[in-house]
Amino acid sequence: MEDFKDLVQRRRSHRRFTDAQVSPEDLQIILRAALMSPTSRGQRNWHFAVVDRKDDLLKLSDAKDGAGHFIKDAALAIVVMGDPEVNDCWVEDCSIAAISMQYQAEDLGLGSCWIQMRGRGLSDGHTANEVIHGILGLPEHLEVLCVLAIGHAADERQPQNEDKLKWENVIIKSDD
């Protein structure tokens, strides 16, 4: 593995994917990263649904109004969920697991993109959570945070530009 600082700089969101599949070994490594991610009080209150059927990916791409259409072109999607009744930090725990999977995908040479679903929906009044539950038959007590689209990137993204980091948004309090 390269230096983590380089991996963080190189990881970018990809919304275009090739037709190549993600190997079962790579998928397992990505899920392992999620299952090892830190959680509030060690509760491990995250759940993941892996979707690789093209018709389900197409349906997921229409789970909300707006920018999720590219899910249909990914090799797979991982639906990231938590149980709000188990832990009030489920959003934070699921977020940590999701970014852990994205960094792991990048380290494996794969592209990924986070698609926000919590708080999103369709103009007909259905929430993305309801739509995704209907597509995948998920347990009712789980709430969907996001969907990660993962695959072999079909585009080339430049690393993050160091000159554009917003250091002015950092407050440092020290004894000096």
The strand line-up of the biggest sheet is 1-2-4-3
Distance between the termini: 36 Å
User: Which structural class should the secondary elements be placed in?
Assistant: alpha+beta
In round numbers, the mean pLDDT is: 95
Number of helices: 5
Taking pLDDT < 50 over at least 5 consecutive residues as the criterion, the unreliable ranges are none
Oligomer: single chain
* Run of helices and strands: HHEHEHEHE
Q: From the alpha carbons, calculate the radius of gyration and give it in angstroms.
A: 17 Å
**Number of DSSP strand runs:** 4
* Largest β-sheet summary: 4 strands, antiparallel
How much of the polypeptide forms β-strand, as a percent range? 15-25%
Helix share bin? 25-40%
How would you characterize this protein structure?
The protein is α+β, with helices and mostly antiparallel strands. The chain has helices at 4-10, 24-35, 54-60, 90-107, 128-136; strands spanning 46-51, 76-82, 111-116, 143-151. α2 (24-35) packs antiparallel against α4 (90-107). It is globular and about 55 Å long. 32% of the residues are buried. The model has no long low-confidence stretch (mean pLDDT 95).
